Amino acid sequence: MFIARLLYMRAFNAFCVASLQISVFLATASQPIFAQIPQKQRLQQLDPVGPLLAPPPEQEFLSPSPLNDDGEILPQFTRYFLGTGDVIGIFVESPEGRYRLGTGDAITVIVQRFPDLSFQASINRQGNVIVPLAGTVSLQGLTLEQAQAKIRTVLNRFVVEPSVTLALVAQRPPLNFQAPVDIEGNIVIPRLGKISVKGLTLEEAQEKIRLGLERIQVDPVVTVSLLSPRPIQVNVAGEITRPGVYAVNPALPRILDVLRTAGGSTQTADLRQIQVRRKLIDGSVVSQNVDFYTPLLSGGSFPSLRLQDGDSIIIPRREVAMDDGYDRNVVSRSTLAQPVIRVRVLNYAAGGIITQNLPNGSNFIDALGSVSIARSDLKDIALVRFDPEQGRAVTQKLNAKKAFKGDSSQNVALQDNDVIVVGRNLIGKITNVLSNVTRPFIDVQSFVRFFEAFTF
């Protein structure tokens, strides 16, 4: 009896342990393993409508600024945007692999035992051929084997189990043509019609043409190239010798060439912040600042920025109070600046006013070649300069003797339209007249006319 009870207790304990292990196993096996699934994906699984946690609105709709502050060229200035007057080349060929029928292909179809059903045909612009008895049948985009099977199926409705053999007798030529962009920004694609490419890059135009051609042929391989760029005119404003609108070589439209064509920058230009503005097709305007001063000092290459028709170049004015070590003399002696400046010398000994054309970057001593040193008072010389900020003449006394001895403070750099007055009496007379001028000078031209009309 005792032995039977002992065996019973052991069997019951083993059963309980086994039941507990099975329960644990089943519970573990039925539980999802979230550690292997990202939290966002788990939320989507729990909520089939969408994630419970949406991204913040400011991250969802944030758009980049059209300006960048790290000196890199914006993508709007590194791409060529198509416009009226451009001529592009378009080459279209069939994709690699099995040949697919399309408009312009010529086929021959032989029907065994039914010679009257045999025919030759060219696939028309709609991708169709006329099959005897069956009428219009579309073969557009089919391989030769598929077209043969389709014609056999169609004829099988009229004759019993026809034996059909189809062969390609004339393959359509690749589509290769030139397309000028018209005044509305459109090009004409054969068998397709007009497509607008205005404001598109070459890559974007290529993809748009490819998608259009897919309607009339299967998987066309399209290559678009710029054969002839449109004429380019840019507006130049600010601190430039001759502001205005200038034609630019479309093959190599560079800012450097435009600055030279417009006569170079003025003495007060700031070449560190040249601004190029471009109007995009959506009407927005993007702006890019380029630094020509740093490579001028270091001998490096100038920023590579391709100009386009309608661009504006603005040369800002250099603020003297914010000079930051700006070396005007280095700029003056470069090809970026106005090459020649005009300096006028007033001297009793010379008998009037003398106009000198000097290289930009010349100093005070360089303008004294017309002054009779023996007959002139070199200690009493004045430099009169037009100040556009105040609209008046500013006078600076200079000592030529000290300048000749190497005093750099007296050998100042000259600017365009400077006036040098020699002699104490003449300086006093001009100073007196200028002090009695009640109205400011309108511009530098009125300043120059004042001295040209001055009577001794």
Quickly describe the structure.
By secondary structure, this protein is an alpha+beta fold. The protein is 24% helix and 26% strand.
Strand order of the largest sheet: 12-11-15-13-14
Mean pLDDT: 79
| Ends apart, CA distance between termini | 152 Å
Q: How large a portion of the residues is in β-strands, by DSSP E? A: 25-35%
Radius of gyration over alpha carbons?
42 Å
Q: Could you please describe the fold and organization of this structure?
A:
Residues 1-69 have low confidence and may be disordered. It is rod-shaped, with a radius of gyration of 42 Å. It folds into five domains: 1-52, no CATH class; 87-94 and 174-228, 2-Layer Sandwich (wza like fold), CATH 3.30.1950.10; 106-170, wza like domain (wza like fold, 2-Layer Sandwich); 232-332, Roll (Outer membrane lipoprotein wza fold like), CATH 3.10.560.10; 340-452, Outer membrane lipoprotein wza domain like (Outer membrane lipoprotein wza fold like), CATH 3.10.560. Helix content is 24%, strand content 26%. A hairpin with a 3-residue loop joins strand 8 and strand 9. The protein starts with a helix and ends with a helix. The chain has a five-stranded mixed sheet, covered by helices on one side. Strands 17-16-20-18-19 form a five-stranded mixed sheet. A three-stranded antiparallel sheet has the order 7-1-10, with helices on one face. It has 456 residues and is of the alpha+beta class. The chain contains eleven helices and 20 strands.
